[in-house]
Amino acid sequence: KLKEQSGFQINNFQSDITLDSTHARLADLDLQTGHSRISKDLALRYTSWADLTDNLDAVELDLDIDNTRIGMRDALFFAPDLADNPSFRKIANSTLRLDGRAQGRLDNINIQQLQLAGLQGTAVNVSGNVRNAMDPDRLSMNLNINRMATTRTDILALAPPGTIPPEIRIPNNLSMTGRYSGTLTNFDLNGAIGSSFGNLNAVVDMNEGPAGAEPFRATVSTSGFDLKQLFTEDYGVGRVAFEATAQGTGLSPETMRADVKARIKEANYNNYAYNNVDVDARIVRNLYQVAARAPD
Predict the structure, then answer these.
(1) pTM of the predicted model, to two decimals?
(2) Which of 12, 26, 217, 232 is 20 to 30 Å from the Cα of 195, by its Cα?
(3) What's the distance, CA 46 to chain centroid?
């Protein structure tokens, strides 16, 4: 056993270790700490020691993780600021189970499987390809989102302070399936989102551009979403069902310029139901010009 001054302890470390000028491997790894266990195989291949410092993109990874468990109490040793969030207490005794298989150079990693499950209802199941993993400015992903699900409890426990607007209420349950392809600023997303408030389908084409003028195109639809539950204040809104397309530039209300066309199949406002409303809107920063047509 090894116990660090902060309280972090290693109860067991067992592995067949290989290390030479072109190869490093931890085979049959079994690392046990106070609240976690990491097991299976990790191998790195490189042409020389210099690759590890000067040419990480050329390093080849072979990762096989099986039935690994990460305890949130151990996570606190590496991210102590989590303890400042009162909501973290609800997941402090939880664990996150991890299984994964990935191979390839660090600039082109193929993920055969990555599965996470645990906390108070979070689950992730993705596969695909990640390029330029060591360079955030060039990072790109081509991912099949087989399933992503989480809960209000987990989001509030892990979200950095100030990231969730106070007027927004997080659904008790959230899930998503779909596909993501591109960089963090230039991507295509096709996703089906489910929640305890209702469902959304989104197709987003986001492109790179000058700050404040990033071009985008999006199509969003829902067969039913309860806006009343989404907001902490009572704005008089209720259930909506619609199909909408938007095209423009800018990502914030202060910079956005966009044209929006929508077919509102159902909208409840101040206890009155509106049906089959066609909407054309022009957004210029925080100014909105809206034209609506309805049978009644």
Answers:
(1) 0.85
(2) 217
(3) 31
